[in-house]
Amino acid sequence: MALLKVFDIKGNEVGELEVDSTFAEAQINSQVVKDYVTALRANARQWSANTKGRSEVKHSTKKPHPQKGGGRARQGSLVAPQYRGGGRVFGPKPKFDQHVRINKKERKAVIRFLIGEKIRNNALTVVQDFHMEEPKTKHVADFLEKQGISGRTLFIGEGNFVQVGNDNDGKKVSVRCEQHDNFIKSIRNLQKIEFALTSHVSGYDVIVAKNMIVGASALEQLKEWLC
């Protein structure tokens, strides 16, 4: 068990929260973490890089210059790779589906371990809630300064994104979290600050973040999901 202090959005201590040993004592093989992050990065790639070989380049088939008499090396075509605009040798081509499947059990174990690491390293702060009457970047900046938090920081709140707005075809085109809308707007101008919902938490976001700030109810949701 671990006991964490709970703060309000102004940085004042309002209580304590007992964290289950599921997080505080979570352990995992480091190779599993590496495989998980590698899979996430591979799945984020488009795999669409494409170049044209000499058989695909549209160019004149005329011989650049006579075979003999000029003192130059013989050349047969302007699509040869040594010419500007010629075909590329061994260039990248769109690959087959490179999606790497991530085991759900491993994913949960990795995120559970990474959150536990943040707790053990005193890099996790619990906030009562992220409710703000209006968007105010200064309030969030003052909170971070009061807590002595700097560097890449990940905020995690409870809830789900809601699709809003329609395009010309009547399709919903944007998403927002009405519950934390003012808070999300407040952190847009702060560098290296990100916000994620418990339903969209990625282990990569957790591992690259120097600090984590989690809502009290969000921590309970994470416990229910990961345990």
TrEMBL record:
Q: Which of UniProt's keywords are assigned here?
A: Ribonucleoprotein, Ribosomal protein, RNA-binding, rRNA-binding
Q: Where is this region: Disordered?
A: 47-95
GO process annotations (BP): translation
Q: Is Ribosomal protein among this UniProt entry's keywords?
A: yes
Which Pfam families does the record cross-reference, listed alphabetically?
A: Ribosomal_L4
Cite a single GO MF annotation: rRNA binding
Top-rank taxon, per record: Bacteria
Hey, what's the signal peptide range on this chain?
none
Gene Ontology cellular-component annotations? ribonucleoprotein complex; ribosome
Self-association and partners: Part of the 50S ribosomal subunit.
Q: Which family does it belong to?
A: Belongs to the universal ribosomal protein uL4 family.
Role of this protein: One of the primary rRNA binding proteins, this protein initially binds near the 5'-end of the 23S rRNA. It is important during the early stages of 50S assembly. It makes multiple contacts with different domains of the 23S rRNA in the assembled 50S subunit and ribosome.
Entry-linked NCBIfam families: rplD_bact
- Write down what this protein is called: Large ribosomal subunit protein uL4
